[in-house]
Amino acid sequence: MLYEKNNELQLADKKVIYTERGETKEKYIGLEGEQWWNDIANKYEHINIVEITEVTYTNEQLARYEEIKALKSDIDELGKYVLDGVVETVKVDEIKTIAELKLKKENEELEGVISDLTQLLIDKGVIY
Question: Judging by beta carbons within 10 Å of its beta carbon (0-12, 13-18, 19+), is residue 11 exposed, middle or buried?
């Protein structure tokens, strides 16, 4: 879903659903472009394009993309983060970028919890 173009991460705007030797597969179309997929399907009889569709992202996914688009890290991991908001693994050589992103997310969650607890204590009259 993410690909690099001119040293910048881009969001794929299309994906292809195809069959390869009878197995249905789905891939985001990146730098290779839609025409490449059509050429491959025409060249190899065991690959058949079912459809090419536009990809729509939620506001949350677009916001996460804005957070990570300047990071230099594992592109698949960054893509998973954009899709579902979860930072899964941390590789030793990527600790700086991914760990900082993970810590930022954890801090945002904790700030929300602290805010909720503070409001609860105010509502109960424990603090003013």
Answer: middle
Quick one: three-class SS letters along the chain?
CEEEECCEEEECCEEEEEEECCEEEEEEECCCHHHHHHHHHHHCCCEEEEEEEECCCCHHHHHHHHHHCCCCCCHHHHHHHHHHCCCCCCCHHHHHHHHHHHHHHHHHHHHHHHHHHHHHHHHCCCCC
Which tens digits make up the pLDDT trace of 20-62? 999 999 999 999 999 999 999 999 999 999 999 999 999 999 9
> How many whole angstroms separate alpha carbon 105 and alpha carbon 62?
16
Q: Show Cβ contacts of residue 99 under 8 Å, excluding neighbours closer than 6 positions.
A: 90
Q: Over range 107-116, report the average pLDDT.
A: 87
